């Protein structure tokens, strides 16, 4: 444990979050559904990244995007040191030496922190545990090399499907990209189709701005499109774009 940046400490949560947020407010980083489906009551949404992790669709979903009989596939992030010991066929495409995972962080004011923490614990109940790690905010409206001060990292909570969890895909054959694509193309759960989750992730990463695409995600999109057919995929992608716009607009209005 402890391979991510200095200052990162992984703990099972038992209200330990208050140790990380002494003022009582909360920052939570989302790298999956939290990017397009924000938690309630946030007052800031900031694009950026965490280092020291790799995002993979290696988490089985028995609830949101699958069923106990036919689990779907959702993302988790894996600590880089551990990921390096796994036989990942896409390893050669991970160009970043820092293992950067893009996403969005949300600030929850102290008045709602407890409530939102409980909400997230329930939403992420299917195999996720809490880590705390530095989040690097990025102003994507600026040129990458613009002369200006870099915002300081912010400690964030992040929900991780750890490899020790039963939902993590331990079987190498199940982690194969084409096998993951096939499961995604046919799975469905309480929150909707698994393909929808994939396209929402693809589109919301696009929407974050500069350089936030993820090779593992774009490769899966290509494979799932081939399985679904171009027309079905185009309709789902267009819907994903509309849904993200609506979800972020509503939550921003609602959170004001
Ligand atoms: C996250 O979004 O940060 C966790 C994974 C998910 O709920 O998709």
UniProtKB/TrEMBL annotation:
Transmembrane segments: none annotated. GO terms for cellular component: cytoplasm. GO terms for molecular function: glutathione specific gamma-glutamylcyclotransferase activity. One of its GO terms (biological process) is glutathione catabolic process. InterPro entries: ChaC, GGCT-like, GGCT-like_sf. Keywords: Lyase. Pfam families: ChaC. Its EC number is 4.3.2.7. It comes from the Eukaryota. SUPFAM superfamilies: Gamma-glutamyl cyclotransferase-like (SSF110857). This is glutathione-specific gamma-glutamylcyclotransferase. It comes from Aspergillus saccharolyticus JOP 1030-1.
């Amino acid at each position: 444990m402890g391979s991510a940046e200095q200052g990162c400490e992984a703990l099972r949560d038992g209200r330990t979050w208050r140790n990380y947020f002494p003022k009582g407010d909360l920052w939570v980083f989302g790298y999956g559904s939290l990017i397009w489906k924000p938690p309630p009551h946030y007052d800031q949404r900031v694009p950026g990244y965490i280092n020291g992790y790799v995002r993979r669709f290696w988490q089985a979903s028995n609830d949101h995007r699958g069923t106990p009989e036919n689990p779907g596939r959702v993302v988790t992030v894996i600590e880089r040191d551990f990921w390096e010991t796994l036989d990942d066929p896409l390893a050669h495409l991970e160009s970043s030496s820092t293992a950067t995972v893009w996403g969005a962080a949300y600030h929850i004011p102290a008045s709602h922190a407890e409530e939102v923490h409980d909400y997230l614990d329930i939403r992420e109940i299917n195999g996720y545990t809490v880590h705390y790690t530095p989040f690097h905010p990025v102003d994507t409206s600026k040129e990458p090399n613009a002369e200006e001060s870099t915002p300081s990292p912010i400690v964030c909570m992040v929900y991780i499907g750890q490899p020790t969890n039963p939902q993590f895909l331990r079987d190498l054959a199940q982690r194969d990209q084409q096998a993951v694509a096939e499961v995604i193309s046919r799975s469905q759960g309480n929150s909707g189709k698994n393909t929808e989750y994939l396209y929402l992730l693809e589109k919301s990463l696009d929407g974050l701005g500069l350089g936030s695409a993820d090779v593992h995600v774009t490769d899966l999109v290509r494979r799932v499109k081939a399985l679904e057919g171009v027309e079905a995929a185009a309709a789902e992608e267009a819907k994903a774009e509309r849904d993200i716009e609506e979800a972020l607009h509503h939550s921003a209005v609602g959170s004001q």
